[in-house]
Amino acid sequence: MVSSFSVEHKKDYLAMIVEGTYDYWEFMQYPQEILKACKEHHCNKMLVDLTPLKAQDIALIELFFLGEKIAKVLGTKVMLALIWKSESLSDFLVDVATNRSARLKVFDNKKRAEYWLLHKY
Question: Which one has a higher pLDDT value, 52 or 57?
Fold first, then answer.
């Protein structure tokens, strides 16, 4: 494994921190891990901090398949806020996932992500 994650139960949501280096195949497993953690903690809101992650240019096709996977696994069951650099690549990931009914949004800071998670629905 080139990346790792930890999950912490906050008052009204779960917080996940991903560290290490981006690896497509590992990231394809993360939606399942997120769903599992949410079920264990009886929580449907997850904030994922990707800022400590080292990632080179991520291929558009990988973002497409990651967005599809997020939508397929999490769908409307989990509200997912990502803290990541906000740019066209992250917008593309969100577009792919939300066009398939996922509840996902990318933020550039934790306060905005928390606000959206706690006040959107």
Answer: 52
